Predict the 3D structure of the following.
Amino acid sequence: MKKFLFSFAVLVAMIFVVSCGGSDSNSGGYSGDGSYSGDGGYGNGGGSSDYNNVCEHGTPKCEESIQYKCVNNSWEIREYCDCGCSPYGYVCKSCDSSSGGGSGSGSGSSSECSYGDYKCDGDSSYRCSGGSWFYDDSCDYGCNYSTGKCNSSSGGGSGSGGGSSSECDYGEYRCSYGYSQRCSSGKWVDDKACQGVGGCNDETGKCRTADEIKPCPPKLSGSVSGSSVKLSWSYSTSSGCGTPTTTTLKYYNDLTESWIEIKSSSASSFKSYSLSVSDYGYPSSSAGQWLLQAGILVENEVGSASASCYCFIDSERCSCS
């Protein structure tokens, strides 16, 4: 009987252990590699390190034996330092012996490149460190595919891998969907957006300047004082309006039914004028009073625009458009 009771107690204990020993599949736990998994846990990619912090473009830093450089608000590895990274200047320390093995991508048989080599990829220069390629610099004047380094000036960047694969010749420009594009390293890259400046000039491939755009109509106003009329005007060079070079003042002659020039001068200095009603006005039967009509014409090499005023002498008012 005692043996039976003992065996029964053992069996009950084993059933209790089996039913209570398993863990909930949804709860977190630490895996073999030390990372925590499960709801609310941190995986291998959990949390953000200083590597992803926002930084100032071009700023260098050292961490352990790696040199970093800030590119577009994020830290990018610039070089693995075979002999350590110096916090004084944030550059790799020089080695007493030749830097053969190098840290990074492993032994020589699996190296992508040789230490100190450079290569181009588009408008960026890369250099070899530790058997792997790392970003070195962005090239304002294109990357020289012969040296793998950035051109120091706009003179003669080489094409991207030979003439047969080049899309364009260095220094060329073209218009594309409201942008001016320039040729860099044998490829077309956006140079400037031309919206609101008069668009892109298909002949030059560049955005039009104010001198290449037709002027907009001037803003004209007039006032009547006794037997004289004073006209004043201004013009805009923004929002697609060109810069006028010449301003011409005209009045309407009722007898000849034509516009006659009074004065033409430089647009930068000629901005107002006073007219005598006895010289330039006429009695209008339709208006029932003396009327003076005057207009302004602004122009440059591309085109012209105008505005005019009807000045009612007896009513002492002007209507301009």
